[in-house]
Amino acid sequence: MRKLLLSTTIAATLAALPAVADTLRVGVATAQTGALAYADVPVSVGMHLAVDEINAAGGIGGKVTIELIEKDVRSDAAQTSIATQELVDQGVSVIVLPCDSDPALAAIGVISSAQIPAISTCASSPTLPMIGGEYMFSNFPGDNVQATVSAQWAWDQGHRSAYIIYSPDTQYTTMPLYFAEVFEKLGGAMAGQATNTIGQQDFSAIATTVAALDPQPDVIMTSAYEPDFPSMIKALRAAGVTGQIIGSDGIDSPTTFSLGDVAEGLVFTTAGHPTPGSSLETFNTAYEAARGESPETVFSAVGYDLIKVLEAAVLAVDGSTEPTALRDAIANLENVQGATSLITYKGTDGMPVRQVSLIRVKDGDRELLGQPSPDAALIPAPRMQ
Amino acid sequence: MDLFLQQTVNAFALGGTYALLALGLAVVFSIMGLINFAHGELMTISGYVLMYCGLAGLPFAISVALAISAAVVAAVLMERIAFRPVRNASGATMLVTSFAVAMILQVLFQNLISARSQAVLLPQFLSDSIRFGGLIIGINKIGAIVTTVVMLIFLDWFMKHQKAGIAMRASAEDFSVARLMGIRANTVIAGAFALSGLLAGVAAVLWVSQRASVDPLMGFTPVLKAFIAAILGGLGSLRGAVAGGFLLGAIEIYLAAFLPQELQEFRDPIGLCLVVIVLLFRPNGLIPSAALKAEKV
Description:
Number of domains of chain A: 2
Protein name (chain A): Amino acid/amide ABC transporter substrate-binding protein, HAAT family
Largest sheet of chain B: 2 strands, antiparallel
Radius of gyration of chain B: 19 Å
Mean pLDDT of chain B: 91
Number of strands of chain A: 14
Low-confidence stretches of chain B: none
Strand order of the largest sheet of chain B: 1-4
Shape of chain B: globular
Oligomer: heterodimer
Organism (chain A): Sedimentitalea nanhaiensis
Family (chain A): Belongs to the leucine-binding protein family.
GO biological process, one term (chain A): amino acid transport
Keywords (chain A): Amino-acid transport, Signal, Transport
């Protein structure tokens, strides 16, 4: 009996160890290869920068160092679920999931039953935390918020009719539906809509249809991203469409700025802009110092943000790494200073309140149009696909 | 009417690109019985060469020549390294080999170049368009149509009047007999791969000039389209591949243009249903290969 008592005590002590350990073990199940690698690879770089910075300073609050345990999920939903389970078995305190709602959703069952908080690197669909439950968090301005910002801008510019091109393939590519909702709420008229599939190469049929509209729509809004977007905008312009084209964060990429004349005047929403003296400028400088090149995309800064959120959460619970405590801490975070903006989870269902930057392509470079806070009454409710 | 004509021009431009892609698959299949799913990666290689040439500031004409040559060299190397050792293995083995080659190349691109799309700098005139009566035609559309026509004429001449081409046709018809006539198997097969590389390179330039970027997984969609077009036309038949390519292009464009909005979401399934319907009536494809001795029960 004493033996049993002893071993139980030891086991209990061991089980309780992670809670008092001085290491925050972060399970990273993201897409290092495959279709989502375009976002998750730069996110990983940003996360590592933040981790190195924090650990070099002695850890979170000078005592809790961060350890990343990484697994490649190959942009595959099933693999995400498997990798998440493996990470849970290794006793991590928090899990990082891929940049798209669909594979992130595949891990919900695992994280909910293990009661470990999970943050998607950059999934922007507001439905993710809604479906994901209390342990699922996002780390990007929501699609509905981005669409509100761009629709409001279009309306303020005097645009009164809009055409949307969206894809029902993923949550993210349905952002134009939010745009249409807000634009109509503001009093604008929808001139029509077209759907595309992700990976569609040829947009000439859609472009010809839009060009044949009389009158031409003032605005064409899409959340298509590379490689579809360049092909789409080239087709639209070649077909003679002259209206304002509005995109979203997926096209915040060097390709967009190298398209030349066709992309001039293009406007899109994204997670941040390095204004002089901003935190993003500081991040970009640090990135260049560490990597010898400037970041290709804002996603690296978003990865940095994610670690800063975890840091703030650990600080809020006095250095504990106990998963449920961390979950509650994340859910109550307010105004965490990330690289891109201030981040607030308090009062949300897990979709953070973050700044949205509105960028215009001018002379092949980015021009900041503003970082407006949208009217809360205008933001559409999350739409289930 | 103008709208219909305009969409028809679109259909020709897209169909032409599909035809070139399907031909690339058909040339190899007709001789080896291999569907080379790594064909798309040849295009990716061309795309990356275009990207690096653009960064180096080379004139576009030279970049294009280098990009196409790269695909030819890569295709020949692919045959020598990956496919020659399994040449006499079953069709399934060769198919799996081609998938393996495709995946290995994709991962190499992701790790050695970048997981992200890389911008390809293209001359400005490719984005322009000209008015032609009531029609507006993009320069890259005209380029696609003209290139397709030139390539088809070249291929026809090559297959009919060149010794290597005639040898390929003979091998496609009956490889054993062709070898008994003194045709060297290695030369014919390497030639077929070189030709498919040429077609992949040309198609890649057209493809990339439309999308202005190249990424590691770029080859998947075109090879899938080429596969559908090749089946639709008649696997192993070169004329069939061309017919299949143009028909697939027309189906896609007309559906995108004229299907009612409520049904647009189902455009791809409807398009594939049309392909299936064609195959129900012509199970061996539009223009079946003469050498295809398929037995249907």
